[in-house]
Structure formats: C-alpha cells, structure tokens
Specification:
Length: 486
Amino acid sequence: MPRPLRIVIVGAGVSGSGVAAGLVRAGAAGGFSAEVELVDPRPSPGAGLTYAAGGDPRHRVNVPSVRMAAVTGRPAGEAGKGGEEDFHRWCLERGVLEADPAGWADGLHYPARSVFGRYLDERLRPLFAAAGPVRVTHRRDRAVAARRLASPQGTGFVVELAGGRVLEADALVLCTGNPRPELPGVLAGLAGHRRVVADPWAPGALDPIGRTDRVLIVGTGLTMADAVSTLLGRGHRGPLTALSRHGLVPRPRPAGHAESWTDFAADPPSGVRDLLRRVRAAVADAGRQGRPWTDVLESLRLQNAALWAALSADERRRFQRHLRPWWDAHRFQAAPQVARLVASAQADGRLAVLAGRLAAASADDHPSGGGDGGGALWVVHRPRGGETLVGRTYDAVVNCTGAGHGASFRRNPLLAALAGQGLIRPDPLGMGVEVDGRHRALDAGGRPVSSLFVVGPPTRGSLGEVVGASEIVPHALAVAEALAAS
C-alpha cells in the first residue's frame, strides 16, 4: 500500500480548518489516506482571527445564523456541502439565542462572532481526533520558512517551524488569512505612540483610550463599527470622529433573507463601467418589482468569481481605485444591532463621519512632532471635494483601514521565503498571492506550482471576493478534493 499523503496546512482559521475537514471527509469516503499537519499557534482550530475566543461580545456576525457556513463534518443543509443551518441548530441547543439578544424583528439572529468560534471548535475537535484514514495533528507553532524538497520528483516541501521542528510535505496549503493592519503612510511616523492603535484587532488594543478622550478613527467600514461598539459599550463619552476617503459606512442589513435574482455571469461584462451600469439597472428593476437591492448584491456575491475572471488586469485596477469603497459598504453590511448603534451615535452627535484624506499627523499637538508618546495628537485632513486643510487635536487615533495586504510578503516570513525562491509572487493588485483557477500558486514566471495551494483572503486579487466563510468554504473543499484526487 502506498504511504499516506503528507500535507502541511499553514493557518487553522476557517480556510485551513476547512481544507482539513474536507480531507477528513474525503478519507471517510474511501480510497484516500493522509497525514495532515495543521500549523497555527492559536489554541484551537477554526476560529482564526475573526472568530477568536475572548472577543468583544458586541462584535457580531453580519450574516444570519441560519446562513453561516462552515465545513464541520456535520450533516449539511439545503446548500449541500457548506453545513448551513448547523450553526443555528447548535445555538438553539445550547441556549445561546435565549441568553443573548441576538434576534431581530424579522426573526433572524446575529450572535457574537466569538460564539461562531466556539461552535467551530466544538465541531472540529472530535472530527480531527477521530480515527480514520486521514489523521489531523494541530501543531501550535508558526511556519517561518519553506523550501522545495530535494527529490527526483521535486514536488514536495520542507517546512520549518519557529519552535525548531521541521516537517516534510508532499503538498503545502497556505491559509494565512488576512494580514494584520498597517498604519497608513501619513500615520507611519506615529508608530509606537501609546495613543495610536495600529492594530485594533489585537486583544486589549483599545484599553488605553480614556472615557472622555477625543478619538479619531481612520476608516469607516466594519472595523470602525466594531471599535465604536466597544468604546460606547464601555461608557465612552468623548467625541468620536471617523474619517475615510468617501465617508461611507456599512449599509444596514435589510430584514429577511437576500435571494439571488439576476444573472450577470451568463454574459459577464468585460469592463467596470458596463458592470456598474448593469448593476444599477438591475437594482432599479428590482425596486419596481418590490424586491430589495440586496437581492442584486446576493447575485453579485454568488457570481463574483465569473465576473472577476472576465475583467482584465487594468479593469480590476480600475475597480480597486474607484468602486472598491462602494462595493465594501454595500457588500459587507452591518448586523442590525451594530448598524442601529452607529446610526444612533451619529444622530446624537457622539460620532461624526467625515469624508476626506489624511494630509499630516504629529504628536504632542505640535506640527513639528517630537512627542514622547504621552501627549495629544495633531492630525490634518483634506475634506473630500475641498482644498482647505483642516487640523484637529485628538487624544487617540485608531487605525481601522482593514487588513494590511500590501505588507503581507514583507511581514510574513513564510511568504517572504517562498517568494525569495521564486515559488510564489504577489498578485498584480498587491492584495495577496497570485493563483490560477485551481488555487495553485503561480511562481515568479507565472507557472502553476504543483502541490502548492492557497486558500482564502490571500487569493482575493486573483479569484475575486474570498473573505467570508460562505465564500471560503467552497474554495477549501475544492482544494481538499484536488488533494484527494492526487
């Protein structure tokens, strides 16, 4: 009998645990065996950064619990492989929805994100611990380097962990998730200032902010909404100001389920202008027929891979420059509880949302800077559509600009090592790792690297929207099926 396939998966969030669970399923179906090393320093697989335990309970999933998809090994719902409705059943069984005001007027529930992490942990642990042809080992460590395994086939890898262990793999799967946020260029000079929160996702990041502090939040997306929820939940009484180029906040999620309604992929547009024109026409038509605009957005979400593939590299760049903020504000809608809180804070003056660009920043309320990290902050911005600069003093600045995609190769030693060998390269938009349509990494020459796969947010520039669990799951299963077929 051939030996089991050796597979190393780097990252045990939704992407990595999804691939591992898909491999377990493939083994249970017969004809496939593997030794899977799931490398991640976190205490349990599944949760990743987004759904980690200990997160603020005010941070909620922005998809109803009946629609939260994951690969858990449990019986799937109507959607087939995703396991939809299992999370909702789990919440009902454990009284989560009774203990937490997660419900809304339409009967849908939006639990805390950390609850989804607990659910994943409970479902995945026995799945990975079960005896079978595919055995999963969770290595609580970090992968810091990898190189091609010297063999006649030249298809394997040697993976080095921070703790000193070395793993040999026939296949390597990169599931590194979203990179940590990075301060925008104007704020880079304030890095290390104790009142500048570079990474709001870090545990306790907002703790240094006092209840009466004047706070500038850079970015107006879902991360901003999380920060506002945390601060107001702690009794913050000082003025909050949120700034982004367009001043767009996440749209509230309308009542009821969104249902796909329009077919854009049958004849996908090759240009961004044509795509925008067709979307606007579809929204107008939906309104005339009494359907919500979210039905059109649901169609775009489900068909985004085909639509993204139809755009040239130049058109994709045009989308990033001009449409990305609008897409994000509509696509990543806020959970009803969060949307209501943000709207209420705006209405009563606790939160001001501004549109503009950062122009300058310095410490100690003085344009020359030179602060010791304990004083006030002077920040200048240019309002959108205006020429006059506006300078204000703040006690704290919170960076909510999202994942630091542009720094992923520089800050991740594993990606840097693979890129240094020419085994991977950044995608043309600088959002992650470039892959082909089968999730295989492309080398420096643009050729697919056999047995080197990438799943999840790092593929966003190549494959389209791959950030939510519902988008990641089918990608994870596709890679698991490809590995099993090999």
